[in-house]
Specification:
578 residues; High affinity choline transporter 1; mainly alpha; two-stranded antiparallel sheet; ion transport; membrane; Sodium/glucose cotransporter; 67% helix; Na/solute_symporter
Length: 578
């Protein structure tokens, strides 16, 4: 296949446009707010993200290259089809549930990252433990996106995959480095517009190609392969439900989502943006579904692609770029793929920023350097953006099973972080002992269930398991959801048991080595109070609008819900009395 100059030019134009918008947004960030809250402007955009930009960037939390490529692939693959394309519905419901139940308490209490409530209630040790699966999820997601992007570009213009991955990662890291959330948010607007326009322009041309049969016919009748509507066998219903709950509930506890929630000017705005993004996810999936259906309705031996077809060549994951290249005119193909390639970064950049935000605030600042200046935190974020961007790029280039690693890490987010988030926001009385027990139980149950993508054999064989063609044991039982529920129940039971044993005198106070039940004046509780009391961490985020600076506790907590929350905290009350 020859080198396509036109395709390279199209992609370069789109990339330069994205980079220009990112740099402009960085300039906007520099000229917004005071120098004293520069780190806040990078993490949550000064909490003044508007409705339009906020709606786009919230949608881009999930809509990117992996989302559209994965949806098209699921519809195309015989035996799966639209019935197994769960991402559009799952992530849309995830955003709706997030808006209904999680956005308001997180935003109204003025948190800066998703890990803040964990460190406030459970202490810095537990915050560090929960940072691990959160970091793994963000990093492997970014690596999987870069890997898919490199393969997409190599298909359309026939250049080395490694070069395309490195260039794409450099651009995404560059504008994230200089602009933070503002750059991510404003480039999301351009990227989603490009992906929507590029795909919708391509669909009519691909559908009218002579080799394509009416997709209405192939939806319910077998022509070149099984109908693309797909079906769910009775044996696979529990696997389908397990994956659906993973997407719906496991799509909530991600820093990439809460970064958008916490950047909203108010809790109500955060809820509205979540609902808008749910609608946006569904709309953005429509052209991807149609392209997957077109791929399943094409006689590939009548195209320049030739035989065998993509699924026989094990290129089903590349069905979207293949359809655009071989079923559309050259200029439409390059425009569509240029737009898609640029838009892929809309998810990768936010993952890199999310990982660096959690590390700079929850690990570096709150755990080790509570007196760090704002300038110091900004530089820590910049360094970690570079490190995490380079790490994601290296994994995309070197790891043979990036998607397998991301599947496993996303499972850990669902199994470990989601039940912990439920407890910390809605279950009163949970403590560090329960959190650690729930963490360990969930982790053990997930690892012992095996992972086919990583060729990890299970240690626990649940009902319905079977052995595939590669001699890998696959579980049909919904063990991921079982592990999540076990983690949640364990957290609650162990927390209340520990509280009863210490408060009843059954266990002496000296055994409360985590200072989670008995101790009231320990250093650990002072660290918890620091999150919501110390003047070293300015609480201007609690004010719904700018301007926002105050040095007194009563005037800082302008949000009544947050103020009542602090008053009701026993450890904070005791701290103030001293």
């Amino acid at each position: 296949m020859a080198f396509h100059v036109e395709g390279l030019v199209a992609i370069v134009v789109f990339y330069l446009a994205i980079l220009a918008v990112g740099i402009w947004a960085a300039w906007k960030t520099k000229n917004t707010g005071s120098e004293g809250d520069r780190s806040e402007a990078i993490i949550v955009g000064g909490r003044d993200i508007g409705l339009l930009v906020g709606g786009f960037t919230m949608t881009a939390t999930w809509v990117g290259g992996g989302y559209i490529n994965g949806t098209a692939e699921a519809v195309y693959v015989p035996g799966y089809g639209l019935a197994w394309a769960q991402a559009p519905i799952g992530y849309s419901l995830s955003l709706i549930l997030g808006g209904l139940f999680f956005a308001k308490p997180m935003r109204s209490k003025g948190y800066v990252t998703m890990l803040d409530p964990f460190q406030q209630l459970y202490g810095k040790r537990m915050g560090g433990l929960l940072f691990i699966p959160a970091l793994m999820g963000e990093m492997f997601w970014a690596a999987a996106i870069f890997s898919a992007l490199g393969a997409t570009i190599s298909v359309i213009i026939d250049i080395n995959v490694n070069i395309s991955v490195i260039i794409s990662a450099l651009i995404a890291t560059m504008y994230t480095l200089v602009g933070g959330l503002y750059s991510v948010a404003y480039t999301d607007v351009v990227q989603l517009f490009c992906i929507f326009l590029g795909l919708w322009i391509s669909v009519p041309f691909a559908m009218s190609h002579p080799a394509v049969t009416d997709i209405g016919l192939t939806a319910v009748h077998q022509v070149y392969q099984a109908p693309w509507l797909g079906s769910i066998n009775s044996l696979d219903i529990y696997t389908w439900l397990d994956n659906f709950f993973l997407l719906t509930l496991g799509g909530i506890p991600w820093q990439a989502y809460f970064q958008r929630v916490l950047s909203s000017s108010s809790a109500t705005y955060a809820q509205v943006l979540s609902f808008l993004a749910a609608f946006g996810c569904l709309v953005m999936a429509i052209p991807a579904v149609l392209i997957g259906a077109i791929g399943a309705s094409t006689a590939w031996n009548q195209t320049d692609y030739g035989v065998p077809d993509p699924k026989s060549k094990k290129e089903a994951d590349m069905i979207l770029p293949i359809v655009l290249q071989y079923l559309c005119p050259v200029y439409i193909s390059f425009f569509g793929l240029g737009a898609v390639s640029a838009a892929v970064m809309s998810s990768a950049d936010s993952s890199i920023l999310s990982a660096s935000s959690m590390f700079a605030r929850n690990i570096y600042q709150l755990s080790f350097r509570q007196n760090a200046s704002d300038r110091e935190i900004v530089w820590v974020m910049r360094i970690t953006v570079l490190l995490f961007g380079a790490s994601a790029t290296a994994m995309a280039l070197l790891a043979s099973s990036v998607y397998g690693l991301w599947y496993l890490s996303s499972d850990l987010v669902y199994i470990i972080i989601f039940p912990q988030l439920l407890c910390v926001l809605f279950i009163k009385g949970t403590n560090t002992y329960g959190a650690i027990a729930g963490y360990l139980f969930g982790l053990v149950l997930r690892i012992t269930g095996g992972e086919p993508y990583l060729y990890l054999q299970p240690l626990i064989y649940y009902p319905g398991w079977y052995q595939d063609d590669n001699n890998i044991y696959v579980q049909r039982f919904p063990f991921k959801t079982l592990a999540m529920l076990t983690s949640f129940v364990t957290n609650v039971i162990v927390s209340y048991l520990a509280k009863y044993l210490f408060e009843s005198g059954t266990l002496p106070p000296k055994l409360d080595f985590l200072d989670a039940v008995v101790a009231r004046y320990s250093r650990e509780h002072m660290d918890k109070a620091t999150l919501v009391k110390s003047d070293n961490i300015v609480l201007n985020e609690l004010a719904p609008v700018n301007p926002r600076h105050s040095l007194t506790l009563s005037s800082t907590f302008t949000n009544k819900e947050a103020f009542n929350y602090v008053d009701s905290s026993p450890e904070l009350s005791n701290t103030e009395d001293n």
